[in-house]
Amino acid sequence: MKLIKTAIVLLLFLAISAVSGRAQQNSLYHFAGNMKGYHKKDGGVTFKLTNGAVKIAYLKGVGFRIRYSFTGKFNPLFSYATVSNMPSKENISVSKNVSALLLRAGDEELKIQKKPFRISYLSNSGYQFMKDSFGAGHQGDKICHITKRYKGTVYYGLGERPDGMNRAGQRFFLWNTDHGGYNWGTEPLYQSYPFYIGLHNDKAYGVYYDNSFKSMFDFGGQLKTHIGYYADGGELRFYVIYGPSIKEVLKKYTKLTGRYPLPPKWSLGYQQSRYTYYPAKELYRLENGFRSRNIPCDVFYLDIDYMNGYRDFTWNKNFFPHPKQMLAKLKKDGIKVVTIIDPGIKKDSTYSVYNEGLKKDLYVKYPDGSNYVGRVWPGKTTFPDFSNPKTREWWGNLVYNWENNGVSGVWLDMNEPSVFGGKTMPYITVFDKDGRKASEYEMHNEYGMLEAKATYDYLNKKQPNKRHFILTRAGFSGIQRYAAMWTGDNVARWQDVGKMIPMIMGTGMAGEPFDGFDIGGFGGSPSGQLYMRFLQIGALMPLCRTHSSKGTVMQEPWDYGHMYTYINKKMIQLRYKLLPVMYTSFYEHTQTGAPIIRPLVYEYQDDPHTYNINDQFMLGDHLMAAPVVQKDQNSRKLYLPKGTWYEFFNDTKYEGGKTIKVAAPIRAVDTYNKIYNHPYAGLPLFVQAGSVIPMQKVQQYVGQKKITNMNLRVYNGGSRKSELYEDDGVSQNYKKDDYRLTHFQTESDSRDFNINVTMNGKYSGAVKTFTWKIYGLNNQPQYVIVDGRKVDAQYDAKNHTETFKTDAKAMKVEIKK
Ligand code: MIG
Fold first, then answer.
1. Contact residues for 129 (Cβ-Cβ < 8 A; gap 6+)
2. How far is 111 from 128, CA to CA, in rounded Å?
3. Residue 771, Ramachandran bin (φ over 0: left; ψ between -120 and 50: alpha; else beta)
4. What Cα–Cα distance (Å) separates residue 339 from each residue in 21, 470, 529, 592?
5. 422 pLDDT band (50/70/90 cuts)?
6. Is 726 an active-site residue?
7. What number does the ligand 1 atom closest to the CA of 473 have?
8. Which runs of E-coded beta strand occur in 379-448?
């Protein structure tokens, strides 16, 4: 009796608390619940759930798109991150078995469990690469998606992070933040990419969460046996992208979010920056500094002090009384000038830009409609609302007119946005979001990208045949359609040398290929040795720029004494020699979304030894660098993936699949030459057998001289594909077939080494001749035959090379051993 009474009381209590629990707002996460039914429409499938609904579509060449709504209602699809011309939809076929539904499209299938509603993601051969554990849920407007963490999976993604490439076991926040002087593990930083790649059983898949709210990824830092995605609002919309190669995942991801258009070729030259070079005669000193030493350079930057009181689109007339003439004079000497622009507009009733924006009502607002005013360099500032199409047009026009003075590109800084004191704008500020209205909470992470979009779209509209150069600090998925990036305010410390590699590789693995870092470190004063080690990495980066802060020692490549000047010059010259490799990699990116700087796992995902390498990288598909990232090191260990490799500077041959130790001396140019016969021996750089590495003569700036001959370094052994891409480097004519793409296919057996050459495109400015140098020939070949005819060749017995020259239209080269 007593027991029953107690039971009734208990039940009553539970019932009441359940009811009151519902009446109150509670903080539980609610998951999808059960499937209540489904219907097919437009090739896609919509499921009704206990808690709302889910719409599933399949995009050709990408994968499944999953959209949850916990109210059951969907807003029309809108996203700044994904491309405007979405891939077409593919019909999804639905079939049933006892407990599940099977959805099939493309190369994947989804297994839908009905009670509770959960999705498993499979390849069409039945390989399950991802699986909901708790699945999709929400707490109020907050959303989450929780999947199973497969044992042994490595996770890459989220873009630029000063951390190991493999994110497993940690969690990360996405909230663009100006955090100068970051350390290992500092986060979040300037850029956000809600995209990751998982890799297990040698098979890769990617997930892109198309949501710009502040978010968090938990790769097992808290959840341990699950992977969690949380966002503070917005739709839970994600794309599931199956590889199984990482290459394929990135190809599909960049089909969805876009690729980097070919940049002006000069932007791949060496760039010199400082906060701030002024007055004008300082730029002439700099120009003379490079040209008199024959150290190549293409770009100078002007930082915020060129402006009049930090007002965008103005000059400080004391420092730069005749900017047009100055820019024209520098340009004649091959120097392009890029100026910084901050988003904050000085609140100053005598400043026409401010007044115009005010009149046209283009600034970010408070909820009562008044303009938000923050404090940045100019003092009180308003912020253009780049999510307003009218603001974008206005801003684009300002930049366009600005560039008409002779400025060659713009550098968009502080666009996280960074605001003094409060760090960024308040959550409650109001944005237009192309007529939809949104708070900063949602727009924050996209602010920098929208500024870049405003800039790029307008310039492109006005000058559709020109290539534009924009450098931005903040970014979000899709930024690669508009701008190059750099890693913000690093420091002249040894830990920063090492950190730059995974940061740049991380950005590349998030679809943004054009990235670099402040060579020498932004803060602090580097020693000659530190600067040199920074430069040895930086010279191979897509963006190759020295930049430094006020109050630090001057950081020009010749500022560290005779020996370092010599080495630094050689490094910068090497960059110019390798420009064809760099440029061809950019072309490859436009076709496949491939990063330019790649982690080894990108090329060798079937080799688990590559999974956690953070201090080596590939430049393109054939070169692998293992720079020194520690003080006073004269050698280092590195991992060589399977296959035959050559050391680039001294041609030593290695069999890969193991860790080796190589010399990487810092000092003594003299002993350098003695020991290594080569001045760059301080940078361990390797090349795969079978590769063709196109290299050109050093120029003082891109386009200084017409290049008519290309040097081809060819490495005996192996069979590989290589490419050389050429075009005019400045226009969009390449889209009309005005380019030349030369394909090299090497083949080798024990006797012969052959290279088959094919080409397409009709670019008439392409090189006329190739100078071939075949490396790794232990004996002099009997003949070299080009298109069936024997040619003259020189054998170098000491270096095991054979050299000969051909027309650039040669189709078959045979090395008869
Ligand atoms: O509050 O414009 O990252 O490259 O030199 C610092 C001055 C503002 C931060 C950038 C840096 C630039 C600096 N800017």
1. 121, 122, 123, 198, 200, 203, 205, 242, 244
2. 9
3. beta
4. 58, 10, 29, 31
5. confident
6. no
7. 3
8. 379-382, 409-412, 430-431, 438-439
Q: Which helix (H) or strand (E) holds 27?
A: none
Does the pLDDT value for residue 19 go beyond 60? no
Provide the residue type at 600 as one letter: L
Between CA 274 and CA 549 the distance in angstroms is 6
Q: Do the strands 203-209 and 171-174 form a parallel or antiparallel pair, or are they unpaired?
A: unpaired
The letter for the amino acid at 399 is V
Residue 416 is a catalytic residue:
yes
Ligand 1: nearest atom to the Cα of 180? 3
Report the nearest-CA residue for atom 6 of ligand 1: 414
The answer to whether the CB of 60 falls within 8 A of the CB of 90 is yes
Residues in the chain: 817
Amino acid at 200: H
Q: Determine which one of 440, 446, 451, 489 is catalytic.
A: 489
Closest listed residue to residue 339, CA positions, set 357, 326, 356, 352:
326
Atom of ligand 1 nearest to the CA of 549: 5
Exactly one of 109, 312, 416, 440 is catalytic; which is it?
Answer: 416
Neighbours of 281 (CB within 10 A): 10
Q: Angle at the Cα of 562 (from 558 to 566), degrees rounded to 5?
A: 70
Conformational region of residue 435, where left means phi above 0, alpha means psi within -120 to 50, and beta covers everything else: left
Whether the pTM exceeds 0.70: the reply is yes
DSSP string, 683-724: S-EEEETT-EEEE----SSTTSS---EEEEEEESSS--EEEE
Q: Are strands 769-775 and 709-715 parallel, antiparallel or unpaired?
A: parallel
Average pLDDT value for residue range 8-14: 46
Mean pLDDT of the chain: 94
